[in-house]
Amino acid sequence: MMVAKMNNPICGKNIVLGVTGSISCYKAADLASKLTQQGAVVDVVLTKGATNFISPLTFTSLTGRDVYVDMFDPSSKQAISHVSLAHAADVIIVYPATAHTIAKIAHGFADDILTTTILASRANVLVAPAMDGFMFENPATQENIQKLRDRGIFILGPSEGRLASGFVGMGRLVEVPYVVDSLEGILGINGDLDGKNIVVSAGGTQEPIDPVRVITNRSSGKMGFAIARAARNRGAKVTLVTAPNALPSISGIDMRNVSTVEEMREQVLYACENADVLVMAAAVSDYRPKNVSDQKIKKDVTVKQNELSIELVQNEDFIKDVPETVLKVGFAAESENLLDNAQKKLIEKGFSLIAANDITSTESGFNVDNNKIIILDQSGDTEDVPLMSKYDVGNRILDRVVKLLDVQ
Ligand SMILES: Cc1cc2nc3c(=O)[nH]c(=O)nc-3n(C[C@H](O)[C@H](O)[C@H](O)COP(=O)(O)O)c2cc1C
């Protein structure tokens, strides 16, 4: 079933998927399927080597399209398919890429339909190497990969792990979700936030009590991560300053891991020196323990009459230190008086926009994939954003950001 997703840069794009003769070819079937499900037109090109590992029929069945193997196939409907594929492609991805095909691309060979298509195309090219560890480490392969990098070809991986030989090393093909994530970013390069620097904060800060315990909150970081991904997919250069979380990292963005409010303050202010926009999606702790114990606090020593008091001091609000030139977007996670509290925060902190987030709802808010917000602006207007994925909510906020940046 084809799912045309809102704000998905992959949807509607012409993607040439080159598959070469590696044992990991089977993963390309999953990639072809995922891209097709997301609404891409996927033209698969197999090297002759690849046909030893996987059949063209697999890809025809998954994509619903012809699969190309032979450059000189007289039965091909397209007389000059290598050129037509090359010109129609929005992006070309070689997944998996053997050492042999990488060498051919590096030296400009055009002796099969894949390498000829790459040579004849102006589209961005992504190459995901997969091979034995020694093949990967070989200076010939390293030089070839460097040549591709120098030419602006995106190299994905390889990763370290168990290889087909049974050895553990570098050479493992990167997984499909990583490729899809990278493709989204690359296809969004010329989006409406192209040339803009956006800083996003995410997650719940942690304030230490002792070496073991922290004061934190229930923020998962999902909203901030979704905004960062959405901004990258619209062409922005994104810095994501994130408190500890369990989320997969996002390719193509500058990720800074922090823990305490003070660390977040430092990184956000540093990134904001060159930023156009700051989106504060992090749940920043208002208080921290006044004294942090060097040693783990023991029950028997510290607890008197079954009680333990921890004195807290207020954390400084660093929003006021963000340069005035930066357009600021905030979040108000509230359990009562949603609009009044959000409006107050908008004015007090000088946000251009604020997303009011009712955290009492179980279907939106903390640690779920969907959200429902109300966007308030400086003129007092409100916009209801109904329940949708956090990624789509992020895009609704960014739609407003784009409009404000246009006016500035
Ligand atoms: C079982 C088997 C697995 C192979 N796996 C890989 C691989 O993962 N990476 C690689 O670079 N070559 C691998 N090779 C070698 C390539 O298939 C060979 O170099 C071939 O010429 C590649 O041609 P192509 O790049 O045109 O597909 C493998 C060969 C065999 C027999």
Describe the structure.
The chain is an alpha/beta fold and 408 residues long. The protein has helices spanning 26-37, 56-63, 81-88, 99-106, 113-119, 133-137, 139-150, 176-187, 222-232, 261-272, 299-302, 338-349, 390-407, and strands at 14-19, 41-46, 67-68, 91-97, 124-129, 154-155, 159-162, 168-172, 197-202, 207-208, 214-215, 237-242, 254-257, 277-280, 287-289, 312-314, 327-334, 353-358, 370-377, 382-389. The chain folds into 2 domains: 14-187, Rossmann fold (3-Layer(aba) Sandwich), CATH 3.40.50.1950; 197-407, 3-Layer(aba) Sandwich (Rossmann fold), CATH 3.40.50.10300. The chain has 13 helices and 20 strands. Strand 2 (41-46), helix 2 and strand 3 (67-68) form a beta-alpha-beta unit. Helix 1 (26-37) runs parallel beside helix 2 (56-63). The model has no long low-confidence stretch (mean pLDDT 92). The structure holds flavin mononucleotide (FMN).
Features:
binds flavin mononucleotide, 13 helices, 32% helix, alpha/beta, Rossmann fold, 8-stranded mixed sheet, 408 residues, single chain
Largest sheet: 8 strands, mixed
Strand order of the largest sheet: 13-12-9-14-17-18-19-20
The rounded distance between the terminal residues' Cα atoms is: 43 Å
Mean pLDDT: 92
Bound small molecules, which ones? flavin mononucleotide
Task: Report the CATH architecture of the largest domain.
Answer: 3-Layer(aba) Sandwich
Quick one: how many beta strands? 20
- Our estimate of the beta-strand percent is 15-25%
Q: Percent range for helical residues?
A: 25-40%
Count of separate structural domains? 2
Structural class by secondary-structure content? alpha/beta
Q: Which CATH top level class of the largest domain fits?
A: Alpha Beta
CATH topology of the largest domain: Rossmann fold
- Catalogue the unreliable spans: none
The radius of gyration computed from the alpha-carbon positions, rounded to a whole number of angstroms, is: 25 Å
General shape: elongated
Q: How large is the count of helical segments? A: 13
Q: CATH H-level name of the largest domain... which superfamily?
A: CoaB-like
